[in-house]
Amino acid sequence: MASSLTKDSARPGTPGSEKTFFGHPRGLATLFMTEMWERFSYYGMRALLPLYLVAPGGLHLNAGTATAIYSVYVSLVYLLTMPGGWFGDRVWGPRKTVAIAGGIIMLGHLTLALPSSGTFYAGLGLVAIGSGLLKANISTMVGHLYDGPDDPRRDGGFTVFYMGINLGAFAAPLIIGTIGENVNWHLGFALAALGMALGLVQFLIGSRHLADRSSVVPTPLSAEEKSSTLRKAAIWAGIAVVVYAIVGFSGNYTLNWILVPLTLLGVIIPTMVLVRIKRDKDLDRPEQSKMSAYIWFFVAAAVFWMIYDQGGSTLSIFAESSADNSVFGWAFPVSWYQSVNPVLIMALAPVFAWFWLALNRRGKEPSTIVKFGSGLVLVGASFFLFLAPLTIAEGGHKAAAMWLVAIYFTQTVGELLLSPVGLSVTTKMAPAKYASQMMGVWFLAVTAGDATTGLLSIAGVDLNKTNIVALEATLAVLAGAAVWMYRRKVKELMGDVR
């Protein structure tokens, strides 16, 4: 590492050759802090969201509606990463897009801090839009700091960057959650705005350390494309305004007029994107085969995220009403459960990385398919585990906090098996034509999973009932078993990808 850094610093013009942040380009510190504060604001607000929605001092909604709103919100964040990437590639460039995104997120949190139910949903929308814009572009800028894909510092740089994500996610529920639950909900949302403001200020100050490429618009829109895009956007916006004006003035408007279309879009758009890529006649036979295999992974991932993301909604609402949220007699806010996953990720990710390397040296590392299937089985097992505290609560008792910690632990191990593998297989199996878009396609699996949860909640399905939890757990385990049973077929479709 040291010799390669010396070699890099000897080449004039190498981005970040001054090497001041853990041996990495100085710009990594800027992006690390931006992502840390953005995740601090995002996860802090997310930890408060379902609790605020059901609280008597909040919006006082029923659990089903709260879960639907939460699920729609999370699905939108990931759905909007695709147009977010498009803006970075074709309109503003990554650096400008991230700066604008930070401002939108901060404005969204400030809007959430206003004590009004009307502005609350507008605030959620702004945070979702800003997060989609930022998430799609900030990782791209990390890549720009290095001298191509073969730069030996590149993988380590992304590891440091992702530590920022988990640091922000760990601290947020402890700080924002405590203030929101124990002092004032809206003050908690305001703290999230402050976190994003700090991230934005240091991004603007430190952006001089970023690579010049980050300011470039890679494929700018032509004048004709720009006018066509604006015209189509205006038409769709006009249609939406007319429809909702008619519904509103007729007195028939309910929250479902927003929730139902958004949840349907969360299922329909991922399906349409996959179908469009699969039917593209420009793809050769090996690429078509890999896309057929990828659809297996995509559907399985959607099932995984459908259950996993209920850790912030279904499990949180259950903990609020039916768990003894204390350890050795010391009570803690419900939102603190959301810090369990990031601290476990930081503790276990290095262990998993070492374990896979050790197995690989012996020729015993499990295949991508086996890891993926195991992740699904584990997320299903977490909901089988959830049946125990549900049964305790149905008996009129409070479930111990350690039941919930055990559920989050099982889900985190499943995540470490499935999520890195999913990211890796997405880049390896992407057709050349869609190489830059496929990471957005992977995020659409999260959209599809959360949108499905939203649809179930809107339909009146009580996700805190033992029969529904058992059904979801069984579905995940069966999906994992199916991936494993058809592993030879999927492996054959994957071609040269391992």
Automatic annotation (TrEMBL):
GO terms for molecular function: dipeptide transmembrane transporter activity; peptide:proton symporter activity; tripeptide transmembrane transporter activity. Pfam families: PTR2. GO terms for biological process: tripeptide transmembrane transport. InterPro entries: Dipep/tripep_permease, MFS_trans_sf, MFS_Transporters, POT_fam, PTR2_symporter_CS. It is a multi-pass membrane protein. It is found in: Cell membrane; Membrane. One of its GO terms (cellular component) is plasma membrane. Keywords: Cell membrane, Membrane, Transmembrane, Transmembrane helix, Transport. Residues 1-21 are annotated as: Disordered. The keyword DNA damage does not apply. It comes from the Bacteria. The keyword Transport applies. The chain crosses the membrane at residues 43-61, 67-86, 98-114, 120-138, 159-179, 185-205, 257-277, 289-308, 336-357, 369-388, 400-418, 439-461, 467-486. Belongs to the major facilitator superfamily. Proton-dependent oligopeptide transporter (POT/PTR) (TC 2.A.17) family. This is MFS transporter. It comes from Streptomyces ferrugineus. The lineage of its organism: Bacteria, Bacillati, Actinomycetota, Actinomycetes, Kitasatosporales.
